[in-house]
Design brief:
253 residues, alpha/beta, 6 strands, 12% strand, globular, disordered C terminus
Length: 253
């Protein structure tokens, strides 16, 4: 059975941020499902809730699991949500997890500072779009530059979603994850704050730091991130070949 990939986007953006990965995986004959969380992308009119966010991830995972072992991939906010999901006491049917740009506990001064900065930018006349476009133009290659905003920006959802992240038990979830796990961070990613804690909690996880890359590692160095996905898929394929009944809930290797 072919590995199935489920992709979960970060704050403000949408499923469109995964265009490069979806295209690369499709060229390899691998099906990838990129979801829109509530309040984002095609679901911009919805109110963001943690219950519906987790339900969205779970629906995509369980549908994909009917076709083969599932590699769950989350970025930033999506990575934090997927961490909580992957580390549930009743493990979901995933065979591996790539957690990108999310090795930070969303609480305390860091979260308050981030929310204050986001509100300040949002209060600008164009809601900070001039600044955002300049930043993307300066950091992202042309082929992925438009992907983050192609599905629209969830300005009205951002602060609510950030506030709800503080209720997650991310550290507890990390310690419970029993499938192959990869933490992927850009060298200059601000969410590397608790990287050492995460690797202590999951000592068998692999930490991959992509040089000369920011928080937007998936779009800034898409080839490098695609290589991580290829590694994860190969790992799941090897485990599945040795035990076709293994859906990934056994101990990490």
């Amino acid at each position: 059975m072919t590995v199935q990939v489920v992709l979960v986007h970060g704050i403000r953006t949408s499923a469109s941020m995964w265009r490069a990965q979806v295209e690369t995986l499709a060229a390899r004959g691998i099906t990838a499902t990129a979801v829109d969380l509530p309040g984002h992308g095609t679901r911009m009119a919805e109110t963001f809730t943690l219950a519906e966010a987790f339900a969205t991830i779970d629906r995509a995972v369980r549908t994909a699991a009917e076709r083969g072992p599932v590699l769950l991939v989350g970025h930033s906010m999506g990575g934090l949500l997927c961490t909580e999901y992957a580390g549930a006491i009743d493990p979901p049917p995933i065979a591996g997890f790539v957690a990108a740009s999310c090795t930070s506990i969303p609480r305390g001064v860091g979260l308050r500072t981030y929310r204050a900065l986001a509100r300040t930018v949002d209060a600008l006349p164009d809601r900070g779009m001039w600044m955002t476009k300049r930043m993307l133009a300066a950091t992202l290659p042309e082929e992925t530059r438009a992907d983050f905003g192609a599905g629209g920006y969830a300005f009205d959802t951002q602060d609510l979603a950030l506030s709800l992240l503080a209720t997650l038990d991310v550290a507890g979830a990390v310690a419970r994850i029993r499938v192959p796990l990869w933490f992927v961070n850009g060298q200059y990613d601000q969410l590397r704050l608790h990287e050492r804690l995460f690797t202590r909690l999951a000592p068998r996880a692999e930490l991959i730091v992509v040089p000369r890359t920011s928080h937007l590692v998936t779009a800034m160095r898409p080839a490098a991130f695609d290589a991580v996905l290829a590694l994860a898929i190969a790992t799941i394929d090897a485990r599945h070949a040795s035990d076709p009944q293994d859906h990934g809930v056994s101990a990490q290797t």
